[in-house]
Amino acid sequence: MYVVIGAGLAGLSAALTLQDAGADVVVIDSADRPGGRIASDLIDGFILDRGFQLINLNYPEIKRWAIAEELDFKVAPRSIRVSFGSEFVTLGDPRTSFLSSFSSASGSLSSKAAFLKYLISKPDRAESLEDHLLRSGCSDLYRKVLKPFLQGVFLADPSRVSAVVGREIIGTFISGRSGVPADGVASLPLALAKRVKNLKLNTRVEEIRGKVVATSDGDFAAEKVIVATDLTTAGQLLGADQVKPLLSATTWYHSTEDSPTDTAQLVIDSQNRGPVVNSIVISNLAEHYAPVGQSLVSSTTIYHASESEVRRHLALVWGRSTEEWRFLAKYEIHSALPLFAPGAEQVKNYKYNENIYCAGDYLNAPSQNGALLSGRLAAEELLLDEGFQRS
Ligand SMILES: Cc1cc2nc3c(=O)[nH]c(=O)nc-3n(C[C@H](O)[C@H](O)[C@H](O)COP(=O)(O)OP(=O)(O)OC[C@H]3O[C@@H](n4cnc5c(N)ncnc54)[C@H](O)[C@@H]3O)c2cc1C
Description:
protoporphyrinogen ix oxidase, domain 3, binds flavin-adenine dinucleotide, alpha/beta, FAD/NAD(P)-binding domain, globular
Protein backbone atom coordinates (compact mmCIF):
# COMPACT_ATOMS: atom_id res chain seq x y z
CA MET A 1 0.00 0.00 0.00
CA TYR A 2 1.27 3.49 -0.90
CA VAL A 3 0.23 6.42 1.27
CA VAL A 4 -0.26 9.94 -0.05
CA ILE A 5 -0.45 12.57 2.68
CA GLY A 6 -2.57 15.54 1.61
CA ALA A 7 -5.58 15.76 -0.69
CA GLY A 8 -4.79 19.12 -2.25
CA LEU A 9 -4.20 19.21 -6.00
CA ALA A 10 -0.69 17.77 -5.61
CA GLY A 11 -1.86 14.82 -3.51
CA LEU A 12 -4.88 14.12 -5.71
CA SER A 13 -2.81 14.07 -8.87
CA ALA A 14 -0.18 11.86 -7.19
CA ALA A 15 -2.87 9.43 -6.03
CA LEU A 16 -4.60 9.29 -9.42
CA THR A 17 -1.28 8.67 -11.15
CA LEU A 18 -0.54 5.76 -8.81
CA GLN A 19 -4.09 4.43 -9.07
CA ASP A 20 -4.07 4.58 -12.88
CA ALA A 21 -0.88 2.51 -12.88
CA GLY A 22 -2.68 -0.18 -10.89
CA ALA A 23 -1.08 0.61 -7.53
CA ASP A 24 -2.85 0.29 -4.20
CA VAL A 25 -2.99 3.77 -2.64
CA VAL A 26 -4.71 5.61 0.20
CA VAL A 27 -4.87 9.40 0.47
CA ILE A 28 -5.00 10.82 3.98
CA ASP A 29 -6.01 14.40 4.76
CA SER A 30 -6.54 16.17 8.06
CA ALA A 31 -9.35 18.35 6.69
CA ASP A 32 -13.01 17.39 6.38
CA ARG A 33 -12.90 17.91 2.59
CA PRO A 34 -10.38 17.46 -0.19
CA GLY A 35 -8.88 20.46 -2.02
CA GLY A 36 -6.46 22.05 0.43
CA ARG A 37 -6.07 25.68 -0.56
CA ILE A 38 -8.93 25.41 -3.07
CA ALA A 39 -12.11 25.68 -1.06
CA SER A 40 -15.51 27.35 -1.27
CA ASP A 41 -18.08 28.18 1.41
CA LEU A 42 -21.80 28.71 0.96
CA ILE A 43 -22.85 31.53 3.28
CA ASP A 44 -26.27 33.26 3.20
CA GLY A 45 -26.76 32.20 -0.41
CA PHE A 46 -23.35 33.51 -1.53
CA ILE A 47 -20.52 31.26 -2.72
CA LEU A 48 -17.34 32.53 -1.11
CA ASP A 49 -14.13 30.99 -2.37
CA ARG A 50 -11.49 30.88 0.34
CA GLY A 51 -9.26 33.29 -1.49
CA PHE A 52 -9.97 34.62 -4.95
CA GLN A 53 -8.55 32.35 -7.58
CA LEU A 54 -9.25 31.54 -11.18
CA ILE A 55 -8.81 28.10 -12.68
CA ASN A 56 -7.06 27.93 -16.03
CA LEU A 57 -8.53 25.18 -18.20
CA ASN A 58 -5.55 25.46 -20.52
CA TYR A 59 -3.09 24.47 -17.83
CA PRO A 60 -1.45 21.35 -19.30
CA GLU A 61 -2.09 19.32 -16.14
CA ILE A 62 -5.77 20.27 -16.03
CA LYS A 63 -6.09 19.21 -19.66
CA ARG A 64 -4.26 16.01 -18.87
CA TRP A 65 -6.88 14.96 -16.31
CA ALA A 66 -9.68 15.86 -18.76
CA ILE A 67 -11.72 17.33 -15.93
CA ALA A 68 -13.23 20.34 -17.70
CA GLU A 69 -16.25 18.41 -18.97
CA GLU A 70 -17.22 17.61 -15.40
CA LEU A 71 -17.28 21.25 -14.33
CA ASP A 72 -19.99 23.71 -15.31
CA PHE A 73 -17.24 26.16 -16.17
CA LYS A 74 -17.65 29.90 -16.63
CA VAL A 75 -14.87 31.43 -18.68
CA ALA A 76 -13.67 34.91 -17.68
CA PRO A 77 -13.09 37.66 -20.24
CA ARG A 78 -9.59 37.62 -21.71
CA SER A 79 -9.14 41.24 -20.79
CA ILE A 80 -8.81 43.36 -17.68
CA ARG A 81 -10.12 46.78 -16.83
CA VAL A 82 -7.46 49.21 -15.71
CA SER A 83 -8.45 52.25 -13.69
CA PHE A 84 -6.37 55.38 -14.44
CA GLY A 85 -7.93 57.89 -12.09
CA SER A 86 -11.27 58.76 -13.67
CA GLU A 87 -10.48 56.92 -16.91
CA PHE A 88 -10.84 53.16 -17.53
CA VAL A 89 -9.03 51.24 -20.25
CA THR A 90 -9.73 47.66 -21.24
CA LEU A 91 -6.57 45.77 -21.89
CA GLY A 92 -6.01 42.19 -22.84
CA ASP A 93 -5.55 39.77 -25.64
CA PRO A 94 -4.70 41.94 -28.68
CA ARG A 95 -6.96 39.67 -30.76
CA THR A 96 -10.06 40.55 -28.74
CA SER A 97 -9.19 43.99 -27.35
CA PHE A 98 -7.25 45.22 -30.34
CA LEU A 99 -8.20 48.88 -30.08
CA SER A 100 -7.11 49.19 -26.48
CA SER A 101 -3.57 48.33 -27.59
CA PHE A 102 -3.43 51.83 -28.99
CA SER A 103 -4.53 53.62 -25.84
CA SER A 104 -1.46 55.49 -24.61
CA ALA A 105 -2.91 55.59 -21.07
CA SER A 106 -1.90 51.99 -20.56
CA GLY A 107 1.62 52.33 -21.93
CA SER A 108 3.42 53.28 -25.13
CA LEU A 109 2.94 51.20 -28.26
CA SER A 110 6.65 50.34 -28.22
CA SER A 111 6.42 48.91 -24.69
CA LYS A 112 3.42 46.82 -25.78
CA ALA A 113 5.40 45.51 -28.75
CA ALA A 114 8.27 44.81 -26.34
CA PHE A 115 5.87 42.75 -24.20
CA LEU A 116 5.08 40.50 -27.17
CA LYS A 117 8.83 39.99 -27.58
CA TYR A 118 9.14 39.35 -23.84
CA LEU A 119 6.68 36.47 -24.18
CA ILE A 120 9.11 34.57 -26.40
CA SER A 121 12.28 35.66 -24.62
CA LYS A 122 14.40 33.59 -22.25
CA PRO A 123 14.85 34.83 -18.69
CA ASP A 124 18.11 34.67 -16.74
CA ARG A 125 17.88 32.29 -13.82
CA ALA A 126 19.13 34.83 -11.29
CA GLU A 127 17.04 37.84 -12.34
CA SER A 128 13.67 38.98 -11.07
CA LEU A 129 10.48 39.14 -13.07
CA GLU A 130 10.63 42.93 -12.82
CA ASP A 131 14.20 43.07 -14.17
CA HIS A 132 13.31 40.74 -17.03
CA LEU A 133 10.31 42.86 -18.06
CA LEU A 134 12.31 46.08 -17.82
CA ARG A 135 15.25 44.56 -19.72
CA SER A 136 12.80 43.53 -22.45
CA GLY A 137 11.76 47.17 -22.92
CA CYS A 138 8.32 47.01 -21.29
CA SER A 139 8.98 49.74 -18.72
CA ASP A 140 6.00 51.99 -19.52
CA LEU A 141 3.50 49.13 -19.72
CA TYR A 142 5.12 47.52 -16.69
CA ARG A 143 4.77 50.58 -14.49
CA LYS A 144 1.21 51.39 -15.53
CA VAL A 145 -0.38 47.95 -15.86
CA LEU A 146 1.80 44.89 -15.43
CA LYS A 147 3.20 45.67 -12.02
CA PRO A 148 -0.19 46.26 -10.33
CA PHE A 149 -1.68 43.27 -12.16
CA LEU A 150 1.17 40.88 -11.39
CA GLN A 151 1.09 41.73 -7.69
CA GLY A 152 -2.34 40.10 -7.63
CA VAL A 153 -1.09 37.03 -9.48
CA PHE A 154 2.05 36.35 -7.44
CA LEU A 155 0.86 38.02 -4.19
CA ALA A 156 4.22 39.85 -4.12
CA ASP A 157 5.99 42.67 -5.87
CA PRO A 158 7.42 41.34 -9.18
CA SER A 159 10.89 42.48 -8.03
CA ARG A 160 10.75 39.58 -5.50
CA VAL A 161 9.64 36.93 -8.01
CA SER A 162 11.86 34.65 -10.10
CA ALA A 163 11.93 35.65 -13.78
CA VAL A 164 11.80 31.98 -14.81
CA VAL A 165 8.69 31.12 -12.82
CA GLY A 166 7.16 34.52 -13.65
CA ARG A 167 7.62 34.04 -17.38
CA GLU A 168 6.13 30.54 -17.22
CA ILE A 169 3.00 31.64 -15.38
CA ILE A 170 2.49 34.75 -17.51
CA GLY A 171 2.77 32.53 -20.60
CA THR A 172 0.07 30.13 -19.41
CA PHE A 173 -2.07 33.06 -18.33
CA ILE A 174 -1.91 34.76 -21.73
CA SER A 175 -2.77 31.57 -23.58
CA GLY A 176 -5.23 30.51 -20.92
CA ARG A 177 -8.93 29.93 -20.54
CA SER A 178 -9.45 31.09 -16.98
CA GLY A 179 -12.63 31.16 -14.98
CA VAL A 180 -14.51 29.42 -12.20
CA PRO A 181 -16.88 26.48 -11.97
CA ALA A 182 -20.51 27.61 -11.51
CA ASP A 183 -20.58 26.33 -7.91
CA GLY A 184 -17.21 27.60 -6.74
CA VAL A 185 -13.56 26.74 -7.24
CA ALA A 186 -13.84 23.77 -4.85
CA SER A 187 -15.66 21.89 -7.63
CA LEU A 188 -12.28 21.22 -9.25
CA PRO A 189 -10.66 19.24 -6.41
CA LEU A 190 -14.02 17.63 -5.60
CA ALA A 191 -14.28 16.30 -9.15
CA LEU A 192 -10.72 14.94 -8.96
CA ALA A 193 -11.30 13.48 -5.49
CA LYS A 194 -14.37 11.59 -6.75
CA ARG A 195 -12.01 9.54 -8.90
CA VAL A 196 -9.83 8.55 -5.95
CA LYS A 197 -10.91 5.13 -4.67
CA ASN A 198 -9.46 5.35 -1.17
CA LEU A 199 -9.59 8.77 0.51
CA LYS A 200 -9.50 9.19 4.27
CA LEU A 201 -10.51 12.63 5.55
CA ASN A 202 -10.42 14.04 9.10
CA THR A 203 -7.18 12.13 9.71
CA ARG A 204 -4.08 14.05 10.69
CA VAL A 205 -0.67 12.54 9.98
CA GLU A 206 1.47 13.08 13.04
CA GLU A 207 4.68 11.30 12.17
CA ILE A 208 6.38 9.13 9.58
CA ARG A 209 8.47 6.36 11.17
CA GLY A 210 10.17 4.32 8.49
CA LYS A 211 7.36 2.41 6.80
CA VAL A 212 4.72 3.50 9.29
CA VAL A 213 2.56 6.58 8.92
CA ALA A 214 1.22 7.51 12.35
CA THR A 215 -2.09 9.36 12.26
CA SER A 216 -4.76 10.63 14.63
CA ASP A 217 -6.68 7.49 13.58
CA GLY A 218 -3.95 4.91 14.10
CA ASP A 219 -0.95 3.65 12.16
CA PHE A 220 -0.82 2.88 8.45
CA ALA A 221 1.77 0.50 7.01
CA ALA A 222 3.22 2.20 3.94
CA GLU A 223 5.43 0.66 1.28
CA LYS A 224 6.27 4.21 0.16
CA VAL A 225 4.92 7.63 1.15
CA ILE A 226 4.26 10.76 -0.88
CA VAL A 227 4.17 13.84 1.34
CA ALA A 228 1.87 16.24 -0.51
CA THR A 229 1.12 18.68 2.27
CA ASP A 230 1.81 22.40 2.38
CA LEU A 231 5.44 23.41 2.80
CA THR A 232 5.29 24.07 6.55
CA THR A 233 3.76 20.67 7.39
CA ALA A 234 6.16 18.89 5.04
CA GLY A 235 9.04 20.56 6.89
CA GLN A 236 7.62 19.40 10.24
CA LEU A 237 6.97 15.81 9.13
CA LEU A 238 10.39 15.47 7.54
CA GLY A 239 12.33 17.46 10.11
CA ALA A 240 13.60 19.69 7.31
CA ASP A 241 14.15 23.43 7.29
CA GLN A 242 11.61 25.53 5.48
CA VAL A 243 13.61 27.51 2.97
CA LYS A 244 10.91 29.22 0.93
CA PRO A 245 9.00 32.18 2.35
CA LEU A 246 5.21 31.97 2.15
CA LEU A 247 3.09 34.85 0.94
CA SER A 248 -0.25 35.87 2.36
CA ALA A 249 -3.36 37.41 0.87
CA THR A 250 -6.75 38.56 2.06
CA THR A 251 -9.91 38.26 0.02
CA TRP A 252 -12.74 40.65 0.88
CA TYR A 253 -16.34 40.00 -0.06
CA HIS A 254 -18.98 42.72 -0.41
CA SER A 255 -22.49 42.49 -1.81
CA THR A 256 -24.46 45.18 -3.55
CA GLU A 257 -27.80 45.46 -5.31
CA ASP A 258 -26.23 47.89 -7.76
CA SER A 259 -23.33 46.21 -9.57
CA PRO A 260 -20.60 48.67 -10.62
CA THR A 261 -20.29 46.85 -13.97
CA ASP A 262 -22.05 44.33 -16.20
CA THR A 263 -18.81 42.55 -17.05
CA ALA A 264 -16.68 40.01 -15.25
CA GLN A 265 -13.45 41.82 -16.01
CA LEU A 266 -10.89 42.01 -13.24
CA VAL A 267 -10.20 45.63 -12.37
CA ILE A 268 -6.81 46.90 -11.22
CA ASP A 269 -5.66 50.34 -10.14
CA SER A 270 -2.81 51.71 -12.23
CA GLN A 271 -2.29 54.48 -9.70
CA ASN A 272 -2.00 52.27 -6.66
CA ARG A 273 -4.23 54.55 -4.57
CA GLY A 274 -4.92 52.02 -1.83
CA PRO A 275 -4.50 48.44 -0.64
CA VAL A 276 -6.66 46.60 -3.20
CA VAL A 277 -4.62 44.77 -5.86
CA ASN A 278 -7.61 43.53 -7.82
CA SER A 279 -11.37 43.38 -7.67
CA ILE A 280 -14.03 41.55 -9.66
CA VAL A 281 -17.81 41.25 -9.64
CA ILE A 282 -17.50 37.48 -9.44
CA SER A 283 -21.27 36.95 -9.71
CA ASN A 284 -21.08 38.49 -13.21
CA LEU A 285 -18.80 35.57 -14.08
CA ALA A 286 -20.84 32.85 -12.33
CA GLU A 287 -24.33 33.92 -11.33
CA HIS A 288 -24.72 31.25 -8.61
CA TYR A 289 -22.14 33.14 -6.56
CA ALA A 290 -24.86 35.56 -5.40
CA PRO A 291 -28.60 35.30 -4.70
CA VAL A 292 -30.94 36.79 -7.31
CA GLY A 293 -30.90 40.59 -7.20
CA GLN A 294 -27.48 40.74 -5.52
CA SER A 295 -23.97 41.08 -6.88
CA LEU A 296 -20.88 39.68 -5.17
CA VAL A 297 -17.66 41.70 -5.32
CA SER A 298 -14.41 39.85 -4.54
CA SER A 299 -11.33 41.98 -3.84
CA THR A 300 -7.78 41.05 -2.91
CA THR A 301 -5.23 42.80 -0.70
CA ILE A 302 -1.72 41.58 0.05
CA TYR A 303 -0.76 43.96 2.87
CA HIS A 304 -2.58 44.68 6.09
CA ALA A 305 -5.62 46.93 5.55
CA SER A 306 -8.81 47.82 7.38
CA GLU A 307 -12.26 47.30 5.90
CA SER A 308 -12.76 51.07 5.65
CA GLU A 309 -9.48 51.45 3.70
CA VAL A 310 -10.56 48.66 1.37
CA ARG A 311 -14.03 50.15 0.91
CA ARG A 312 -12.56 53.61 0.22
CA HIS A 313 -10.15 52.21 -2.35
CA LEU A 314 -12.91 50.17 -4.01
CA ALA A 315 -14.86 53.39 -4.55
CA LEU A 316 -11.85 54.78 -6.45
CA VAL A 317 -11.17 51.55 -8.33
CA TRP A 318 -14.77 51.16 -9.48
CA GLY A 319 -15.43 54.88 -9.89
CA ARG A 320 -18.58 54.92 -7.75
CA SER A 321 -19.71 55.10 -4.15
CA THR A 322 -19.37 51.91 -2.12
CA GLU A 323 -21.14 53.29 0.96
CA GLU A 324 -24.15 51.06 0.46
CA TRP A 325 -22.08 47.91 -0.12
CA ARG A 326 -22.55 45.26 2.53
CA PHE A 327 -19.39 43.71 3.95
CA LEU A 328 -19.91 39.93 3.95
CA ALA A 329 -16.63 38.31 4.94
CA LYS A 330 -12.88 38.39 4.67
CA TYR A 331 -10.54 35.44 4.33
CA GLU A 332 -7.01 35.99 5.55
CA ILE A 333 -4.79 33.31 4.06
CA HIS A 334 -1.42 33.37 5.73
CA SER A 335 0.32 30.73 3.64
CA ALA A 336 -1.37 31.32 0.31
CA LEU A 337 1.55 30.89 -2.07
CA PRO A 338 5.23 29.98 -1.84
CA LEU A 339 7.57 32.70 -3.02
CA PHE A 340 9.88 31.63 -5.85
CA ALA A 341 12.53 34.31 -5.45
CA PRO A 342 15.07 35.10 -8.18
CA GLY A 343 17.44 32.15 -8.44
CA ALA A 344 14.99 29.69 -6.80
CA GLU A 345 15.11 26.30 -8.44
CA GLN A 346 12.17 24.18 -9.55
CA VAL A 347 13.08 20.71 -8.33
CA LYS A 348 13.95 18.00 -10.83
CA ASN A 349 13.82 15.16 -8.37
CA TYR A 350 10.88 14.46 -6.07
CA LYS A 351 12.48 11.69 -4.06
CA TYR A 352 13.33 12.70 -0.49
CA ASN A 353 14.78 9.39 0.72
CA GLU A 354 14.41 5.66 0.16
CA ASN A 355 10.75 5.63 1.33
CA ILE A 356 9.54 9.17 0.91
CA TYR A 357 8.71 11.38 -2.09
CA CYS A 358 7.47 14.96 -1.88
CA ALA A 359 4.93 16.90 -3.92
CA GLY A 360 3.40 20.36 -3.65
CA ASP A 361 3.30 23.68 -5.48
CA TYR A 362 6.35 24.87 -3.51
CA LEU A 363 8.50 22.39 -5.45
CA ASN A 364 7.41 23.38 -8.92
CA ALA A 365 5.46 26.61 -9.39
CA PRO A 366 3.04 28.64 -7.26
CA SER A 367 -0.04 27.61 -9.23
CA GLN A 368 -2.64 24.88 -9.66
CA ASN A 369 -0.59 23.56 -12.56
CA GLY A 370 2.57 23.54 -10.44
CA ALA A 371 0.79 21.56 -7.71
CA LEU A 372 -0.77 19.02 -10.12
CA LEU A 373 2.48 18.57 -12.01
CA SER A 374 4.53 18.04 -8.86
CA GLY A 375 2.09 15.32 -7.74
CA ARG A 376 2.21 13.49 -11.03
CA LEU A 377 6.00 13.67 -11.29
CA ALA A 378 6.49 12.46 -7.70
CA ALA A 379 4.18 9.51 -8.38
CA GLU A 380 5.90 8.70 -11.67
CA GLU A 381 9.27 8.71 -9.94
CA LEU A 382 7.92 6.32 -7.30
CA LEU A 383 6.41 4.03 -9.95
CA LEU A 384 9.68 3.95 -11.85
CA ASP A 385 11.60 3.02 -8.68
CA GLU A 386 9.06 0.30 -7.94
CA GLY A 387 9.38 -1.18 -11.41
CA PHE A 388 5.88 -0.33 -12.67
CA GLN A 389 5.65 -0.23 -16.46
CA ARG A 390 4.69 3.09 -18.05
CA SER A 391 1.13 2.89 -19.37
C1 LIG B 1 -5.59 33.03 -2.29
C2 LIG B 1 -5.01 32.10 -3.33
C3 LIG B 1 -5.12 32.44 -4.67
C4 LIG B 1 -4.60 31.60 -5.63
N1 LIG B 1 -4.79 31.91 -6.95
C5 LIG B 1 -4.40 31.04 -7.90
C6 LIG B 1 -4.74 31.25 -9.26
O1 LIG B 1 -5.49 32.19 -9.60
N2 LIG B 1 -4.26 30.39 -10.18
C7 LIG B 1 -3.50 29.30 -9.84
O2 LIG B 1 -3.10 28.54 -10.72
N3 LIG B 1 -3.19 29.06 -8.54
C8 LIG B 1 -3.63 29.89 -7.58
N4 LIG B 1 -3.37 29.62 -6.27
C9 LIG B 1 -2.46 28.51 -5.94
C10 LIG B 1 -3.09 27.14 -5.86
O3 LIG B 1 -4.35 27.16 -5.23
C11 LIG B 1 -2.12 26.27 -5.07
O4 LIG B 1 -0.85 26.32 -5.70
C12 LIG B 1 -2.54 24.80 -4.96
O5 LIG B 1 -3.89 24.67 -4.59
C13 LIG B 1 -1.63 24.11 -3.95
O6 LIG B 1 -1.95 22.74 -3.90
P1 LIG B 1 -1.07 21.74 -3.03
O7 LIG B 1 -1.69 20.40 -3.19
O8 LIG B 1 0.36 21.91 -3.38
O9 LIG B 1 -1.19 22.22 -1.50
P2 LIG B 1 -2.46 22.36 -0.55
O10 LIG B 1 -3.66 22.78 -1.32
O11 LIG B 1 -2.03 23.24 0.57
O12 LIG B 1 -2.73 20.88 0.00
C14 LIG B 1 -2.09 20.34 1.11
C15 LIG B 1 -3.05 19.37 1.80
O13 LIG B 1 -2.35 18.74 2.86
C16 LIG B 1 -3.24 18.56 3.94
N5 LIG B 1 -2.47 18.40 5.17
C17 LIG B 1 -1.65 19.33 5.76
N6 LIG B 1 -1.10 18.81 6.88
C18 LIG B 1 -1.56 17.54 7.00
C19 LIG B 1 -1.35 16.50 7.96
N7 LIG B 1 -0.52 16.65 9.00
N8 LIG B 1 -2.01 15.32 7.78
C20 LIG B 1 -2.84 15.13 6.72
N9 LIG B 1 -3.06 16.09 5.79
C21 LIG B 1 -2.43 17.28 5.92
C22 LIG B 1 -4.07 19.83 3.92
O14 LIG B 1 -5.30 19.66 4.60
C23 LIG B 1 -4.27 20.04 2.41
O15 LIG B 1 -5.44 19.41 1.94
C24 LIG B 1 -3.90 30.43 -5.26
C25 LIG B 1 -3.80 30.09 -3.93
C26 LIG B 1 -4.38 30.90 -2.97
C27 LIG B 1 -4.34 30.47 -1.53
